[in-house]
Write a structure and sequence with these properties.
Elements (H helix, E strand, L loop, with lengths): L3 E8 L4 H14 L3 E8 L7 E9 L12 E6 L2 H6 L4 E10 L6 H4 L9 H7 L3 E5 L1 H8 L5 H9 L7 H11 L5 H13 L1
Parallel strand pairs: 1-4, 4-5, 5-6
Antiparallel strand pairs: 1-3, 2-3
């Protein structure tokens, strides 16, 4: 199998590392060679966080270069727009429509860009944008946006629901298991 590339992007504290861990565990069950690489910006200060997940028959490098990502899963709208040059032709962006103001916007040095989904779509990018935050809150916690997004991503793969649920069981503490399963289901059905 040709190597597939998934970028998970967001802002520090949104759970991108758990999402990549979940995805990695799922892919291991199918016997893929997997490389996961975390690239932290100022993640503890609300800065950009990127995780690369690469899988296939044989993967030699953990890094995804510009124009190579099959999917970009974004926890925040501006982060989706920030990483578009990494998407390959025919690739897809799955993004939460939530907007988190970066520091230049917070201090008044810049404005949050408007109509980002429309601008990305106008540039020929396949954008699947939806309100993952509302679904996470419906599941029981705003912190479950990461699992809602994994549920939405799952529609693009042939893994069974049972395989996804097993990966969730291996990735989250037992006390949060039902909440995360519900978040996954809501994302998959969105």
């Amino acid at each position: 199998m040709k190597t597939k590339n998934i970028m998970i992007v967001g802002v520090g504290g949104q759970g991108s590392l758990l999402a990549s861990k979940l995805l990695g565990r799922l892919l291991l069950t199918r016997g893929y060679d997997i490389k996961v690489s975390e690239v932290h910006g100022m993640s503890q200060r609300g800065g950009s966080v990127v995780t690369y997940v690469r899988f296939g028959d044989k993967v030699y490098s953990p890094v995804i270069d510009k124009g190579e990502a099959d999917y970009i899963v974004s926890f925040e709208l501006l982060e989706a727009a920030r990483w578009t040059e990494y998407l390959k032709p025919g690739g897809k962006i799955i993004t939460n429509i939530q907007q988190i103001n970066p520091m230049p916007v917070i201090i008044g040095a810049a404005q949050y860009p408007e109509a980002l989904v429309e601008k990305m779509s106008a540039a020929g990018i396949d954008v699947d944008a939806f309100d993952a935050l509302s679904l996470a809150e419906q599941a029981g916690s705003a912190k479950a946006v990461n699992i809602v997004l994994m549920g939405h991503l799952s529609k693009n793969f042939d893994f069974t629901r049972e395989e996804w649920m097993q990966a969730i069981e291996q990735s989250v503490p037992a006390k949060f298991l039902e909440l995360n399963k519900k978040a996954f289901t809501l994302g998959a059905e969105a």
